[in-house]
């Protein structure tokens, strides 16, 4: 199984690719994709890295699992392909953007436009079995994506990390909060958002303000 990841990441992650856990992970993923329907499509698994190159990262958004419905997952957390109905969490993300930055609610839920500006849309687990949420968790992906987060923290400066929900907030322990801006809030899922833990967090505004103060071009959300 041929996994492609953009060359800008290779110097930083090449050691991970040869570790026993990663080789076991790839064998597991290969077996899963050969035996059942999995998402995202094979060629999209590393889209977070392929659309946001290492030298271009400004913001990291961490999700947990890819969408497991047909045609939804495209390798970018919270993102769906053009023409796909927006899942509830994505709707709430866009609603927060509307109120925080007066950004019109977009027709497309494809966040590739963010990725190309330097937003790493990273799921902790990069693959999933169709209609089985969490089915590829604890197989090695989390070890790999934790290494990615730590590498960014160690090698970069003045990054913005947006950690939404309890799972994402735990990642703060591998981020150097002295070098980077870390913003935390509830998850944009309806359960959390409707309890008042998401709306009004102003994360998109605060992220852009920090980037501008750091001399970095802000994101057009």
UniProtKB/TrEMBL annotation:
<dbReference type="Pfam" id="PF03167">
    <property type="entry name" value="UDG"/>
</dbReference>
<keyword id="KW-0378">Hydrolase</keyword>
<keyword id="KW-0227">DNA damage</keyword>
<feature type="domain" description="Uracil-DNA glycosylase-like">
    <location>
        <begin position="50"/>
        <end position="211"/>
    </location>
</feature>
<dbReference type="InterPro" id="IPR036895">
    <property type="entry name" value="Uracil-DNA_glycosylase-like_sf"/>
</dbReference>
<dbReference type="GO" id="GO:0004844">
    <property type="term" value="F:uracil DNA N-glycosylase activity"/>
</dbReference>
<keyword id="KW-0234">DNA repair</keyword>
<dbReference type="InterPro" id="IPR005122">
    <property type="entry name" value="Uracil-DNA_glycosylase-like"/>
</dbReference>
<comment type="similarity">
    <text>Belongs to the uracil-DNA glycosylase (UDG) superfamily. UNG family.</text>
</comment>
<dbReference type="InterPro" id="IPR002043">
    <property type="entry name" value="UDG_fam1"/>
</dbReference>
<dbReference type="GO" id="GO:0097510">
    <property type="term" value="P:base-excision repair, AP site formation via deaminated base removal"/>
</dbReference>
<protein>
    <recommendedName>
        <fullName>Uracil-DNA glycosylase</fullName>
        <ecNumber>3.2.2.27</ecNumber>
    </recommendedName>
</protein>
<dbReference type="InterPro" id="IPR018085">
    <property type="entry name" value="Ura-DNA_Glyclase_AS"/>
</dbReference>
<dbReference type="GO" id="GO:0005737">
    <property type="term" value="C:cytoplasm"/>
</dbReference>
<keyword id="KW-0963">Cytoplasm</keyword>
<feature type="active site" description="Proton acceptor">
    <location>
        <position position="65"/>
    </location>
</feature>
<comment type="function">
    <text>Excises uracil residues from the DNA which can arise as a result of misincorporation of dUMP residues by DNA polymerase or due to deamination of cytosine.</text>
</comment>
